[in-house]
Design a protein that fits this description.
The complex is a heterodimer of chains A (305) and B (479). With 305 residues, chain A is mainly alpha-helical. Chain A has one domain. Chain A is built from eleven helices and four strands. In chain A, the strands form two sheets. Chain A has a two-stranded antiparallel ribbon. In chain A, a hairpin with a 2-residue loop joins strand 2 and strand 3. In chain A, helix 1 crosses helix 9, helix 1 packs antiparallel against helix 10 and helix 6 crosses helix 8. Chain A starts with a helix and ends in a 14-residue tail after the last helix. The relative contact order of chain A is 0.20. Chain B has 479 residues and is mostly helical. Chain B has two domains: 76 residues, no CATH class; 377 residues. Helices cover 66% and strands 3% of the residues of chain B. Chain B contains 18 helices and four strands. The two termini of chain B are 32 Å apart. The chains are: A mainly alpha (305), B mainly alpha (479).
Chain lengths: 305, 479
């Protein structure tokens, strides 16, 4: 029971991070129907930007308040990651609209390889360890010497995710930008005829997705305390799995899928085998796509000629 | 980042007026964006000093890169993208294209002859077999990738299925050979009635077909459930399968040796005759002086033969109903289905055939290296093979071969260029930039020439006269 509660907390934390990345996949898929393969690497880039900014803020500027530092890091990482993703969309995906179907996908794979190796070349291939930032924990319950703890950074991650999701939901449901986005998603040509700037809307989708990924990247850096150029691939695939599991194109589905994947991964590691945790995630992806391609909350796709 | 490939937004000017202010403004904005993109990651380097993380600064590198982007964009705005520039008349194919057409009938035989004569040419050029080892090894590497490219070409180029887990079949082939050849029970079984050395001498020739068939079988097992999926989902699932196989190879230590891999795999033999210095070795039997290079040259011809078999099979298959069905499927899946083709079976046959050639190549890889480990079968290899197929022009045999030679050989040459070290400093290692260039090339090719470098493709069947179909007229990949 103690172990279970502890793993539940860990799983929800990890799931929040996956959920934030998954939104980027699901939004892009919803609006232009492509799997943005490079999104995992955008997440990785964001954690490096956060790392560099954190070092600048703490060592060069000498800010000692960890919460102030974290807030600055978040804003800076969101800005630069959004700029990166905006540029990626502009350069690698926009010229391919109307090309054959696999073209944007191949371009995205190329972009993903490019980003990972760009970071490897510019920052070096080794792990970058960050000193532990917020180490305080709250002991929830204790029995036979086993403590169930809730770390402050876990609270930060979960609260921040909830707040962001609420804001994001408001953006999509209530603002004119969200309305334009949903319209483009339904029918791009009709939306354009009705005066919506389609290119602009799609660009903004990439910017929002990147901003959420940047939050996830900063949280990931804070939670695990390490950044590596190869760390975009596996979290990216897991977040994509989350998006597919929740029903790709569905925003609540992405969050639900993220939480489920986080929980499954943590419980699998705790009760079965930690070596095969990635195998578990990849298998869920394959099984979902084969047996439940529309996901938990998605709509079945109708193929049109 | 290649911001300068996008078209200018601000450089609109009425004819005759100066375009310089607009061009300058546009170039300035591009430079600013480039600064934002490159500033954090290139301008600062995270370095570990005494166990703690610190920052190193590289403002000069950022300044140079941003400067290049600014100047490049400005020059492009003033010349190629200038609104005052008279539009170029499209008058048929350019001189390069016409030249290509003129030499193309001679190109394939010339390439073939060069491939056959390459080891002797290399030996003659470097002045002896032993000195040519480096060149012949490079030839083997290139041919391995040519073969993998041709194998994947069946899946991606002909059938239009994006397979990101091709390395899984390469791994299956390699491990099939490694496990069977080093297996004690199998050795003991053959030793009981065919002699002690039989299995060590013949393992490769028995395992080669087995590896291909086994990989093909795996292709069917993995392919069957997923081939109903649409193109991009299929890509992701194959990626997942590739990773699952690699992770299982790492973690199933009892069976596969785990991350340490399998070592001392029996070497290739000349159809049962080992390349040893002894009495019954290859050199003694053929009356040659013993030279370890004989084995390398033989391996070169083995992979050349395997690659040619792949190419020949593909060419023949394209003339069979199944090959036509692949191409039809690539062009329009819904039309195929309405004409009564069983698309799942058609896809499955392409997937399994491609997997089989991947298995052959894997078997060859194991016998050449004498060692296999999961490290050799990462996603990077899949991506590299895919990049070769994409760059070569999906579906084009000769394009894939040229792309493999340029990519693998070109990088190898870069490594040996001394002046690069003088420009970029002593620590410059071009091989680090290989995947970077591969990724960039994939994006650039998709934008600039989505059909690859060899982009006009002959239809396999035609009525009365043969007409080349321009790549841009063919629409593919629906479904």
């Amino acid at each position: 029971m103690d172990v279970f509660v502890q793993q539940l907390i860990n799983g929800l934390t990890l799931g929040s991070i996956y959920g934030l990345i998954a939104i980027g996949y699901t939004m892009v898929f919803g609006i232009i129907g492509m799997v943005n393969f490079a999104h995992g690497d955008v997440f990785m880039v964001s954690s490096f930007i956060a790392l560099i900014c954190f070092l600048l803020v703490t060592t060069v500027m000498g800010i000692t308040s960890i919460f102030l530092a974290l807030a600055i890091v978040l804003v800076v990482a969101m800005f630069f990651t959004s700029l990166t993703n905006w540029a990626i969309e502009r350069v690698a995906y926009r010229p391919l609209r109307g090309s054959f179907r696999l073209a944007p996908m191949i371009s995205a794979i190329g972009m993903s390889i490019f980003l990972a190796n760009f970071v490897q070349v510019s920052q070096g291939p080794r792990n970058k360890p960050v000193p532990p930032m917020i180490t305080d924990v709250i002991v929830i319950m204790e029995r036979d010497g086993y403590q169930v703890t809730l770390a402050w950074k876990q609270i930060i991650i979960m609260v921040l995710t909830t707040v962001l999701l609420a804001g994001f939901w408001y953006l999509v449901q209530k603002t004119s930008l969200g309305r334009a986005q949903r319209a483009v998603e339904q029918d791009r040509k009709m939306a354009a005829l009705l005066g919506i700037n389609v290119d602009h809307t799609i660009s903004l989708t990439f910017v929002i997705g990147a901003a959420l990924a940047a939050v996830a990247g900063t949280m990931y850096l804070m939670y695990y305390g390490v950044a590596n150029f190869a760390d975009g691939f596996v979290p990216g695939v897991k977040a994509f799995t989350a998006a597919v599991l929740g029903g790709i194109g569905s925003l609540p589905g992405a969050v639900l899928g993220g939480l489920l994947i986080g929980l499954i991964e943590v419980f699998w590691s705790a009760y079965f085998s930690i070596e095969y945790k990635d195998v578990a995630a990849f298998s869920i992806l394959a099984i979902t796509l084969i047996f439940l391609p529309q996901g938990l909350l998605g709509r079945p796709e109708v193929e049109k000629v | 980042m290649a911001v300068d490939t996008a078209h200018p937004a601000g450089a609109v000017a009425s004819p005759g007026s100066s375009i310089l202010p607009g061009a300058l403004k546009d170039a300035f904005i591009t430079g600013l964006i480039a600064l934002g993109l490159l500033g954090p990651l290139v301008g600062f380097e995270t370095v570990v000093i005494d166990g703690a993380l610190g920052l190193a600064y590289r403002p000069l590198v950022v300044a140079i890169m941003v400067g290049i982007i600014f100047a490049g964009r400005l020059i492009l705005n003033l010349t190629v993208w200038s609104p005052n520039r008279p539009p170029k008349a499209q008058a048929g194919p350019g001189p390069v294209a016409r030249g290509m057409v003129a030499i193309s009938p001679a190109f394939k035989p010339a390439l073939f002859a060069f491939a056959i004569g390459f080891p002797f040419l290399a030996a003659a050029m470097t002045g002896g077999l032993n000195e040519s080892r480096y060149l012949i090894d490079l030839g083997i590497l290139i041919l391995t990738y040519v073969m993998l490219g041709w194998g994947l070409n069946i899946v991606v180029g002909l059938a239009g299925l994006l397979d990101l887990g091709y390395v899984a079949f390469y791994a299956v082939g390699a491990y099939t050979y490694a496990l069977l050849a080093t297996s004690e029970p199998v050795n003991a079984f053959f030793a009981s009635f065919l002699g002690e050395t039989f299995w060590a001498n013949w393992a490769f020739w028995f395992c080669l077909p087995a590896a291909g068939m086994f990989a093909g079988l795996w292709g069917m097992i993995l392919g069957f459930p997923v081939l109903r999926l649409r193109g991009d989902y299929l890509a992701i699932v194959t990626l997942a399968f590739g990773e699952i196989i690699r992770l299982v190879l790492i973690n199933w230590v009892d069976f596969t040796g785990g991350g340490a891999g399998i070592a001392s795999i029996p070497r290739a033999t000349f159809f049962g005759i080992p390349f040893t210095a002894g009495e019954d070795g290859f050199a003694a039997l053929f009356g040659l002086e013993f030279n370890p290079m004989h084995r390398i040259v033989f391996l070169y011809f083995v992979i050349l033969a395997l690659a040619l078999i792949t190419a020949f099979t593909t060419v023949r298959l394209r003339r069979l109903p199944v090959g036509r069905a692949w191409e039809a499927l690539r062009e329009d899946e819904i039309a195929c289905r309405s004409l009564g083709l069983n698309t799942t079976n058609v896809k499955l046959s392409a997937f399994a055939t491609g997997a089989m050639f991947g298995g052959f190549a894997g078997c060859f890889f194991a016998v050449r290296a004498g060692f296999v480990s999961p490290e050799s079968f990462t996603f990077d290899i899949s991506a590299m093979i895919l990049a070769i197929v994409v760059l070569g022009g999906m579906g084009s045999q000769i394009g894939v071969a040229v792309a493999a030679a340029v990519m693998m050989g070109g990088m190898e040459m870069l490594r040996n260029l001394g002046f690069l070290k003088q420009v970029f400093g002593e620590g410059f290692d071009p091989s680090l930039y290989r995947m970077l260039l591969f990724g960039f090339a994939m994006v650039a090719i998709m934008i600039w020439k989505p059909r690859g470098l060899v982009s006009s493709r002959d239809p396999t069947i035609y009525l009365k006269e043969k007409k080349a179909v321009s790549g841009s007229l063919v629409k593919e990949g629906h479904g």
